[in-house]
Every structure is written in C-alpha cells, then in structure tokens.
Automatic annotation (TrEMBL):
Presence of keyword Transmembrane: yes
Record's protein name: Aspartyl protease family protein
Domain of life, per lineage: Bacteria
Lineage: Bacteria, Pseudomonadati, Pseudomonadota, Alphaproteobacteria, Hyphomicrobiales
GO MF, one example: aspartic-type endopeptidase activity
One annotated GO biological process: proteolysis
Record organism: Roseibium hamelinense
InterPro entries found in the cross-reference section: Aspartic_peptidase_AS, Clan_AA_Asp_peptidase_C, Peptidase_aspartic_dom_sf, Retropepsin-like_bacterial
CDD domains: retropepsin_like_bacteria
C-alpha cells in the first residue's frame, strides 16, 4: 500500500501544479509560445481543458465513486469551469465595471500605477475629479482642459493659506457665466499621489463665483503626458 499512497501523492502534487499553472495563465493573460499563438483564442480553451483534465485525473486518484457522486462532481466542476471561462471572456467588462465602482465610491482618488503613472477614474457625473494637495492642504479639483490655469475657489484658497483680503482681483477671465475677475497667485507645491510639482501659476476666484477648484493647463503642463482612456485619466509625471 505504501507505493500506492506515494503514487497518489505524486499525482495529486502534479495535479495541483497544473491547476496553479492554469490559474496563473488565466489571471495574467500570458501570451504563450510560440509567438504566433493568439492567447485570446486559446485562453478559454486552455482553462476549460485544464479543468476537465483536473476532473478526470482526480476521479482516477480518488475513485471509485457512485454514479450520483460522479454526476455531482461534474455539475460542480463544470459550473466552476463555466465561471472561469465566462470571467475570462468578459474580463475587460469586469475591469471597466470595477473602475466605475471605484469612481462612484472614491471620486477623485489618485492611484499610482506600477509603471509610475497616476490613474483617476471618471466619477458618476461623467467628470474627472482629482484629489491633490496644494501647499499641503487637501483640495478636490475638477479636471478642466479649457482652463488656462489652476483656479481655486475662495474656500479652497483659504484652506491653502491664501486670504482673500490679501489678494488683488484684477485679472479678467471668461467663464461659463460671463466675464469675471480673479486674483493671481503662485502655488508653492501641487501634489497628486506621489508626484510633486513646484511654483505653479494659478488664480483664486471670488467667493461664490466657482463651485469647485479647477485643475487647468498650468497644472497639466507639468506632467510629461496625460491622456484619457475610456473612464480613466492617466497622468505621467
């Protein structure tokens, strides 16, 4: 019986390795060799065949079983196999759905990516909000590529250390509500996630003239690049 137990252990070990390998392939989307092999075509079949092989080998290792148990195992593992294949087939939709949930639960959250870029997800209203620090003060910005500069609301400006009584509202600008006067300022620091920028030109709006601070071009121009991909704003410091 000793050699049978050893053989069973060997087969179980190999089965576990095969299943782990299949899961890694499934999660990573690794493009198998040779180079001309299209994983988008072979991926679902790879997962399905591996799952079927796992069921077959497991039945040999742990058998014999009743017909009822066999059919029960087929339904259970078949269901798992279908879930894996469906998850693979709709992985892009699942990822995009996750982005939308993130945008609704944490609007403006700046997430640093492994490649050093910073990602922000579009919020439920369809806009990009960016959580940042201005001179150490937390400010929630609205991305506005039509704004020539960073513009702070009166309340956000005071939070960052700019007092309206000490500002000079002399610069005329065009807004959606017509012409307005704003006060020129210099931001010592603007920080988004771990990216930190210094000496940025900006403006402060009069009290009640602006609902949300705007992340305009004087802030965006400090980035090496930025782009919009679907529901994501990708910024490269």
């Amino acid at each position: 019986m000793g050699w049978k137990n050893a053989f069973r252990g060997l087969v179980v070990g190999l089965l576990i390795l095969v299943c782990v390998w299949a899961v890694i392939q499934f999660l990573s989307g690794f493009e198998m060799k040779p180079e001309n092999l299209d994983f988008d075509e072979t991926g679902p079949r790879l997962v399905a065949l591996t799952a079927l092989a796992a069921i077959f080998v497991a039945s040999l290792v742990f058998g014999p079983a009743s017909v009822k148990d066999i059919f029960k195992g087929i339904f259970v593992w078949g269901g798992i196999m279908l879930l894996l294949v469906a998850g693979y087939a709709y992985r892009h939709d699942l990822v995009n759905g996750g982005y939308r949930v993130l945008g609704a639960l944490a609007p403006g959250l700046a997430v640093e990516q492994p490649d050093g870029s910073i990602m922000v997800v579009r919020d439920a209203s369809g806009h990009f909000r960016v959580n940042a620090l201005v001179d150490g003060a937390p400010i929630d910005f609205l991305l506005d590529t039509g704004a020539s500069a960073v513009v702070l609301t009166s309340a956000d400006a005071q939070r960052a250390g700019f007092h309206p009584s000490e500002l000079s509202f002399t610069v005329p600008v065009s807004t959606a509500n017509g012409r307005a006067l704003v006060a020129p300022i210099r931001l010592d620091t603007l920080q988004i996630a771990d990216a930190r920028f210094s000496d940025i030109r900006g403006f402060v709006a009069r009290e009640g003239a602006l609902e949300t601070s705007l992340l305009g071009m004087t802030g965006l121009d400090r980035l090496r690049s930025w782009r919009i991909e679907g529901d994501r704003l990708i910024m490269t410091p």
